[in-house]
Write a structure and sequence with these properties.
Layout lengths: L6 E3 L5 E3 L2 E8 L4 E6 L2 E7 L9 H12 L8 E5 L5 H9 L4 E5 L3 H10 L8 E4 L3 H6 L6 E6 L14 H10 E13 L4 H13 L2 E6 L1 H4 L5 E8 L5 H10 L5 E3 L1 H8 L11
Parallel strand pairs: 6-7, 6-9, 7-8, 9-10
Antiparallel strand pairs: 1-3, 2-3, 3-4, 4-5, 10-12, 11-12, 11-13
């Protein structure tokens, strides 16, 4: 997560809505906003320029979304986690007419965001008030070109979204060659990432990971963006983006993922 200094509350207060304390804060004017839940920044939204992705890990996810299909081509995408809907807005701006489903269980959060940070008309974004496991399970086989998971509770991805059974369900929902993208907060020695990588390698044929160099070197915690596919992940395109990015990052191919984040055991769903 990123911290921001020049912010103020729209109404000078915070509201308890949904599952936590919700604030929508203006950042430096010019229609830029931060959605914050329980003191943690969840989304940065630029209403004038939805292609601006201020958080570095969100920019890295955007780079993946740019690489999964030719520029401007519409895709069918499922977002697990909505908050300010930064990435759905980005896809609507860069890939017009894309069909987008957002799985966001916090209806109060969605209502507040819709009211104060309205979506563009005919955006193609549909929000379903369900959690990721339930929402993915309800989708038909081969529904989506991309599934993006950027969902946090108390600063962590819910474990049920990382279980092998759910990852297999994601694989079912994706078209052949479709991509799964996960934002995961972790730090050396990457115990959680090792678990997730092990689960992904049982379901998908290729995987890559992007991260800040300082995070990979163990100097500080950070966000790992894991991308997996039953076909080929867009490795070359992401390496080019990584070199030219305003915040350069490291891309690990499958061999480096195994060397750096291997050795884990998949997280398995316990008895209900």
């Amino acid at each position: 997560m990123m911290s921001h200094g020049d912010t103020r509350s729209v109404e000078g207060r915070a509201d308890v809505e949904g599952d936590g304390m919700l604030e929508i804060l203006e950042e430096g004017g010019a229609d830029c906003w931060v959605v914050r839940v329980d003191g943690r920044d969840q989304s940065h939204v630029d209403l004038r320029d939805p292609t601006r992705l201020a958080f570095d890990y969100v920019r890295r996810i955007g780079d993946v979304l740019d690489a999964v299909a030719p520029a401007g081509e519409a895709i069918r995408i499922v977002h697990v986690g909505g908050a300010g809907m930064t990435l759905p807005r980005y896809v609507a701006a860069t890939r017009a007419t894309s069909a987008q489903v957002v799985l966001e269980p916090d209806e109060a959060l969605t209502a507040r965001v819709r009211q104060e940070l309205p979506l563009a008309r005919r955006s193609g974004i549909k929000v379903r008030p369900v959690d990721g496991v339930t929402g993915i399970a309800a989708l038909r086989d081969g529904y989506a070109d991309v599934v993006v998971v950027d969902a946090f509770v108390d600063g962590r991805v819910p474990h049920d979204l990382l279980e092998r059974e759910h990852l297999a369900d994601v694989g079912r929902v994706l078209v052949p060659g479709g991509c799964y993208v996960l934002n995961l907060a972790d730090q050396a020695p990457f115990a959680l990432a090792r678990v997730v990588v092990a689960g992904l390698l049982e379901i998908f044929t290729s995987i890559m990971v992007s991260a800040e160099p300082a995070t990979l070197r163990g100097r500080r915690p950070g966000n790992l963006v894991l991308t997996a596919a039953r076909g080929e992940v867009p490795l070359d395109a992401l390496r080019r983006r990584a070199r030219s990015s305003a915040a350069p990052y490291t891309v690990l191919d499958q061999r480096l993922v195994s060397d750096t984040l291997g050795g884990g055991r998949p997280l398995v769903r316990g008895p209900s």
